[in-house]
Amino acid sequence: MEEQKPDIPLVQWFPGHMTKARRLIEENLKLVDIVVELLDARIPLSSSNPMLAGMISGKTHAIVLNKADLADPAITREWITFYKRMGKSAMAVDSVQGKNIKELTNMINDLTQRQTAKFAAKGARPRNARAMIVGIPNVGKSSLINRLAGTVAAKTENRPGVTRAKQWIRIGKHIDLLDMPGLLWPKFDDPAVGINLAFTGAVNDDIYDKEKVALLLLEYMQNYYPHFLMTRYKIDVLPDSTEELFEVIGKKRGCLLKGGKLDEEKITTVVFTDFRSGRLGKISLESPSV
C-alpha cells in the first residue's frame, strides 16, 4: 500500500454496530433470491463495499446507482455501460423524485422469476420474490425503500448509521424487500476512498478535518467543474489557489466573525451543503474510464 500523502487527511470510520450489521447480512442471505446493492452514483467505486462480493457469492446481484439526480448524467451512463459489460444488471435511480422506481421493481421481478417459479414447479404455493437491499450508510436506502413501498416504511435521516436493524417491507404485490443497516468495511486501503465517502457524507463528519477535506473538494471542482463554482458563487475569474477560493466563497457568502475575520467552519459547512444538496451542480467524483 502506498504511504499516506501528508496533504491528504486519513479518513477511517467503523463504529461498533457495523460488525453487527455484517453478521445480520450474512445470517439473512439464505432467505433472499436477489441482493440489490445500492451505490452512490457520484462515487460508484468508493461506495461499493469490497467485503460484499465474498458474502453474496452465488446470489443474483443487481447494482443500483442512487442519487443519480446529483451526479453527472453523462458519467452515470458510462457507469451503467461499464457494469453491463461486466455482466451485471445495473440501472440508475433518483429515490427523492422517484425516477426509474417502477423500472427497478420490474428488474427485480425479472431477475427473480426463475427462482420463484421453482416453488410452483414443485407444487408448492407460489411466494413473493425476496430481495435484500444493501449499501453503505447514507446512500439513500430508506428513501428508496419508501419510494418502492409507496409509504413511509423505513426511517429516513440525512446522517449515516440510522438504520440499525433489519426490516421486511412489502413492495407491490410480488416483492418482499429486506432492508439491512448500512455497512462499511474496517479499513479504507485507498485514502481517496475515505475522502470520497467524506465528500458525500457517508462517514461521520466529526471524525476528520472538515476544512482540509472541503479544500480537497474545491480543488476537484476547480479541475473538473470550474463553471459550477463560478455560477454558484458568482465568481468571474477563479483564483489560482484553492485556499484563495475558500476565502472568496467565505466573503461571497458572508461567513464572517466579529472583526471581519473569516468563519472557516461556516465556509466549510457551505461548501459541503452546496455539494451534497446538488446546488453546486450535477457532479461525479469517479469515472469508469479513469
Automatic annotation (TrEMBL):
It is found in: Cytoplasm. Residues 18-186 form the CP-type G domain. CDD domains: YlqF (cd01856). The keyword GTP-binding applies. It comes from the Bacteria. Keywords: Cytoplasm, GTP-binding, Nucleotide-binding. PROSITE patterns: G_CP. Its main location: cytoplasm. InterPro entries: G_CP_dom, GTP-bd, GTP-bd_ortho_bundle_sf, GTP-bd_ribosome_bgen, GTPase_MTG1, P-loop_NTPase. Belongs to the TRAFAC class YlqF/YawG GTPase family. MTG1 subfamily. Required for a late step of 50S ribosomal subunit assembly. Has GTPase activity. This is Ribosome biogenesis GTPase A. It comes from Pectinatus haikarae.
